[in-house]
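Bumping my old thread because nobody answered last time. Still need a sequence for this structure:
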């Protein structure tokens, strides 16, 4: 994987990494930024790959023929290659304007074959999503405009009139435009959330390591490097003490190896009553199974 000095080092950081003393560590910050940006790009390219393969299957089912099969194979192959070699894809796609150029190329191909825009409309939307994950907002908007213009232009070039677009075909046109806008918004929102929630994490960790407060004592101990359970184990004696005498009587018989039916016979009560008491005992002790309940009872006896 290429170092952090490439495309991602020139983009705003998606997160910050601080040294133990709370000061920003530029090298670590760049590496963290690279890792997050690469993950975002890989996620977007994975969406492109899945969408291309799915659209191809639907196109073939609708009688798209060999052309749709070839186009689907090419799009799926390019997406897969990008997922496998995200570092190369980053160098190709990240520089300013490259995603717009990619959207323009897809739109231009749609002018040659309108089936590309109709059968693989979701791919155009996925391209906008990738742009939203790795580009500045202005490039995302431009990419969306190019994709929308390419979709409408391909329809017009291949015989769809303006009257059809605003009439019988309005739902098709509106659906694609909304799809493009939704993908752009989803990508931008994802990046905004990453920036908002990850940016303060190093500051919080640095404060905890310096002795400040945290949400819980367990989190403070974990941040300091000590291994502690998030939920301390309860005393089995306290758990068993919470049972009623009737529930305890059933558990005692289970601990001797009786099954619920035998316990019902010995206590001269109905089997559903035994099962009800077992369920109540499990709920009060947190036992997941009868075996777990019996084990807790045995531990309480020797504790």
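Sorry it took so long. Here it is:
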């Amino acid at each position: 994987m290429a170092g952090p000095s490439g495309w991602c080092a020139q983009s705003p950081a998606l997160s910050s990494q601080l040294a133990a003393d709370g000061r920003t560590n530029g090298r670590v910050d760049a590496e963290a930024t690279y890792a997050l940006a690469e993950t975002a790009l890989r996620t977007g390219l994975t969406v492109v790959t899945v969408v291309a393969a799915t659209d191809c299957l639907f196109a073939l089912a609708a009688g798209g023929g060999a052309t749709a099969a070839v186009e689907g194979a090419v799009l799926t192959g390019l997406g897969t290659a990008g997922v496998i070699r995200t570092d190369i894809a980053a160098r190709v796609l990240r520089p300013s304007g490259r995603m717009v150029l990619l959207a323009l190329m897809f739109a231009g191909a749609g002018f040659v074959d309108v089936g590309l825009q109709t059968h693989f409309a979701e791919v155009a939307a996925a391209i906008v999503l990738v742009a939203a994950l790795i580009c500045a907002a202005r490039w995302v908007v431009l990419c969306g405009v190019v994709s929308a213009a390419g979709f409408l232009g391909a329809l017009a070039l291949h015989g769809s009139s303006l009257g059809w677009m605003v009439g019988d075909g309005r739902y098709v046109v509106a659906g694609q435009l909304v799809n493009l806008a939704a993908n752009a918004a989803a990508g931008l929102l994802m990046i905004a959330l990453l920036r908002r929630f990850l940016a303060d994490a190093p500051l919080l960790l640095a404060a905890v390591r310096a002795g400040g407060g945290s949400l819980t004592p367990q989190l403070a101990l974990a941040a300091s490097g000590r291994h502690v359970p998030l939920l301390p184990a309860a005393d089995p004696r306290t758990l068993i003490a919470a049972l009623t005498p009737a529930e305890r009587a059933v558990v005692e018989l289970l601990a001797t190896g009786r099954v619920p039916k035998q316990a019902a016979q010995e206590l001269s009560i109905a089997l559903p009553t035994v099962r009800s008491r077992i369920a109540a005992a499990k709920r009060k002790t947190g036992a997941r199974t009868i075996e777990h309940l019996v084990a807790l009872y045995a531990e309480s006896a020797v504790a």
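The radius of gyration is 30 Å. Let me know if any region looks off to you.
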